[in-house]
Amino acid sequence: MVTRRRVESWEVSDEFWLRVEPLIPVRERSTDKAYVRKAGAGRPPKPARQVFEAVMYVLRTGCQWKALPKERFGSASAVHKRFLEWEAAGVFEALWKAGLAEYDQMEGIAWRWQSIDGAMYKAPLAQEAVGRNPTDRGKKGGSKRHLLVDGRGVPLSLVVTGANAHDVTQLDVVLQAIMVKRKTPSTRRSKHLCADAGYRGRPALRIIEGHGYIPHVVDRSKEADAKRRDPTRKARRWVVEVCHSWLNRFRKLLVRYEKLERSFVALNHIAAAIIAFRKVKLATNIIYG
């Protein structure tokens, strides 16, 4: 009887690495003999796959960078340095775009019904994109993730701010930050945006309509009443709340300990990419971390 080794959530499968590797800057990508190190240049760089797996380990377990197992990943500072270099090169944003492109090709992005919402979380060490949390007696150290998703809950846009930034103030920014452009449909179809009462008001409605959406801004209680009156009515806004929950399953995102905004956003981009890849039905045998 053949027993399969349990695959850890942070391990990078060969199939997933095939999608990540082309995005790594060329000078760092290879572990082959083509890489020639200058004399006296110090230790050779770690293999890119090992570094990416270390990033996945941090993202999935929520551990501090300095707590990375040295016997498996080597120097934690070297890993973090490469992580920041890749972020500056746009690797993780490109990975999210690649995930959305594959998802769109295989499944088709569910553009017709989109949902938007923000979610707050503690950020005790953050130095950027942080503010007083209005739901926690105004304590310092709170951030907020503003999220736009398609009809299946796949993230299309993500913005991080301080917890004191009201959802409606970030509406235009989030709608402008969609990672992929929608292809012109063969037939004219409406696109709808579902939001809760936090997006009420004429200025918000003008922004929503200005981006070509039909607004559906409904109070939670009214939404529940409508469902009770008509059980066949399909709820649509909940998918954005589900996506926030999916992102929080990556333990490094549940409580923000990253000091820099760019670091935390990059980790969110990796998680968003994994969610997009997982939605590809034809690739359900592929493990994306």
From TrEMBL:
One of its GO terms (molecular function) is DNA binding. One of its GO terms (biological process) is DNA transposition. Residues 117-274 form the Transposase IS4-like domain. It comes from the Bacteria. Residues 12-96 form the Insertion element IS402-like domain. NCBIfam families: transpos_IS5_3. This is IS5 family transposase. It comes from Hydrogenophaga aromaticivorans.
